[in-house]
Amino acid sequence: MKTMKLAFSTLALVASVNVFAHGMMTMTYPKDGAMLMAQAERVELNFQNPMKVVSLKVVGSKGKPVSVRFNRDGATTKNFQTILPMLAPDSYTVHWKAMGEDGHMMKGSYGFMQH
Prior knowledge:
The chain is of the alpha+beta class. The chain has one helix at 2-21; strands spanning 25-29, 34-36, 42-60, 65-66, 77-83, 90-100, 105-114. The protein has one helix and seven strands.
């Protein structure tokens, strides 16, 4: 029984270290769920550890993508930003994928409303 407890404890410790080794999202702009009266000027993603954004899509409520340009060959960074074009009033979803310096891929999405 002691061997089993030790094995589970070791596994839990290794798993928790692995989770913290990757870049967790610390902040976005626009914030998830934001209702913006002023024009959103940029997409900003802030990570706990340096990440390389490899995919970024901004999509309106009817599935229409917004043209967003960014350097896919850019360096890893904790703070990623790219300029948005003028957005029409609508609900938008930002879909992103990023890769850590160790090659680990992460992805996520969040939404905001432009008035």
